[in-house]
Amino acid sequence: MQRTTISISEDLIERLRIMAAERKISMAALIRECLEEKAKSHRPKPKSMGIGASGYTDTARRIGEERAKPR
Q1: Concatenated DSSP letters for 26-41?
Q2: Rounded Cα gap, residues 68 and 71, in angstroms
Q3: What pLDDT, on the 0 to 100 scale, is given for residue 68?
Q4: φ, ψ for residue 26 (rounded to 5)?
Q5: Buried b vs exposed e over 36-54: b needs ≥16 C-beta within 10 Å?
Q6: Would you say residue 3 has pLDDT above 80?
Q7: What are phi and psi of 28, to 5 degrees?
Q8: What is the pTM assigned to this prediction?
Q9: pLDDT tens for residues 12-22?
Protein backbone atom coordinates (compact mmCIF):
# COMPACT_ATOMS: atom_id res chain seq x y z
CA MET A 1 0.00 0.00 0.00
CA GLN A 2 1.25 3.49 -0.81
CA ARG A 3 0.90 6.56 1.41
CA THR A 4 -0.32 9.91 0.12
CA THR A 5 -1.19 13.31 1.52
CA ILE A 6 -4.37 15.23 0.74
CA SER A 7 -5.82 18.56 1.90
CA ILE A 8 -9.29 18.36 3.43
CA SER A 9 -11.43 21.05 5.04
CA GLU A 10 -11.90 20.92 8.81
CA ASP A 11 -15.63 20.36 8.31
CA LEU A 12 -15.05 17.30 6.13
CA ILE A 13 -12.44 15.89 8.53
CA GLU A 14 -14.93 16.15 11.38
CA ARG A 15 -17.66 14.40 9.38
CA LEU A 16 -15.22 11.63 8.45
CA ARG A 17 -14.18 11.22 12.10
CA ILE A 18 -17.82 10.84 13.13
CA MET A 19 -18.55 8.34 10.34
CA ALA A 20 -15.44 6.29 11.17
CA ALA A 21 -16.27 6.27 14.89
CA GLU A 22 -19.85 5.18 14.24
CA ARG A 23 -18.61 2.28 12.11
CA LYS A 24 -15.69 1.50 14.47
CA ILE A 25 -13.10 1.69 11.68
CA SER A 26 -10.13 4.00 11.12
CA MET A 27 -10.46 7.17 9.09
CA ALA A 28 -7.90 5.74 6.67
CA ALA A 29 -10.06 2.67 6.08
CA LEU A 30 -13.13 4.85 5.59
CA ILE A 31 -11.34 7.11 3.10
CA ARG A 32 -9.98 4.10 1.17
CA GLU A 33 -13.50 2.66 1.01
CA CYS A 34 -14.94 5.95 -0.28
CA LEU A 35 -12.21 6.29 -2.91
CA GLU A 36 -12.73 2.70 -4.01
CA GLU A 37 -16.48 3.30 -4.49
CA LYS A 38 -15.78 6.47 -6.48
CA ALA A 39 -13.21 4.71 -8.67
CA LYS A 40 -15.63 1.85 -9.40
CA SER A 41 -18.22 4.27 -10.78
CA HIS A 42 -15.71 5.97 -13.11
CA ARG A 43 -16.43 5.47 -16.79
CA PRO A 44 -13.46 6.31 -19.03
CA LYS A 45 -14.16 8.45 -22.07
CA PRO A 46 -14.50 6.28 -25.16
CA LYS A 47 -11.54 6.53 -27.49
CA SER A 48 -12.15 7.74 -31.01
CA MET A 49 -11.81 5.24 -33.80
CA GLY A 50 -8.94 7.30 -35.15
CA ILE A 51 -10.97 8.84 -37.94
CA GLY A 52 -9.67 12.36 -38.25
CA ALA A 53 -7.60 11.99 -35.09
CA SER A 54 -4.61 14.29 -35.58
CA GLY A 55 -3.32 13.88 -32.05
CA TYR A 56 -3.76 17.63 -31.44
CA THR A 57 -6.33 18.98 -29.02
CA ASP A 58 -6.04 22.59 -30.18
CA THR A 59 -6.66 22.13 -33.92
CA ALA A 60 -9.18 24.98 -34.27
CA ARG A 61 -6.81 27.50 -32.68
CA ARG A 62 -3.81 26.21 -34.62
CA ILE A 63 -5.63 26.35 -37.99
CA GLY A 64 -6.30 30.07 -37.47
CA GLU A 65 -2.63 30.71 -36.75
CA GLU A 66 -1.27 28.53 -39.55
CA ARG A 67 -3.65 29.55 -42.36
CA ALA A 68 -1.85 30.92 -45.37
CA LYS A 69 -2.17 34.66 -45.94
CA PRO A 70 -4.34 35.58 -48.96
CA ARG A 71 -2.49 37.03 -51.96
Answers
A1: -HHHHHHHHHHHHHHT
A2: 9
A3: 66
A4: -75, 160
A5: eeeeeeeeeeeeeeeeeee
A6: yes
A7: -60, -45
A8: 0.57
A9: 999 999 999 99
